[in-house]
Amino acid sequence: MTPVVLAFLIMGDGNFDKSRNRIRIYTNSFTHSENILLAAAIIEKLNIKTSVMRDKNNQYILTIGAKQLKILQILISPYLHPSKLYRIGKNNYSV
After folding, report:
1. Residue 68 and residue 4: Cα distance in Å, rounded?
2. Which of 1, 45, 46, 64 suits a disulfide with 23, CB 3.0-4.6 Å?
3. Mean residue pLDDT across the chain
4. Are the beta carbons of 63 and 55 closer than 8 angstroms?
5. What is the tens place of the pLDDT at every residue in 54-75?
């Protein structure tokens, strides 16, 4: 796991949850075990606390909470296409 890998994961399957000020990564097609491994890699390699959350129909997603948001934004903003900054709660004009 690197900042570039996380940036691409969020650009493809990420979403900014404005109501809770968090990032959701829709890894619904991954098993629960695979989600746990992915969350552990993000925590271990990037020091960003990531949780596995049950979504629907026995599917799971990853969440990165509000306390980690600024760290995540600083770490991966340089690797996001400007049109995708909204996925981490930033507009196209601030990085």
Report:
1. 17
2. 64
3. 94
4. no
5. 998 889 999 999 999 999 999 9
Average pLDDT, integer, range 1-30: 96
Q: How many CB atoms lie within 10 A of CB 57?
A: 6
Count CB-CB contacts under 10 A for residue 29.
Answer: 9
Domains of the chain, by residue range, sit at 3-84
Cβ atoms of 51 and 23 closer than 8 Å: no
Distance (Å, rounded) from C-alpha 24 to C-alpha 31?
16
> For residues 84 and 92, is the Cβ–Cβ distance under 8 A?
no
Question: Is the torsion defined by CA of 38, 41, 47, 49 positive or negative?
Answer: positive
Mean pLDDT within 14-39: 96
Alpha-carbon distance values, 54 to 10, 81, 93 (Å)? 18, 29, 34
Its pTM stands at 0.89
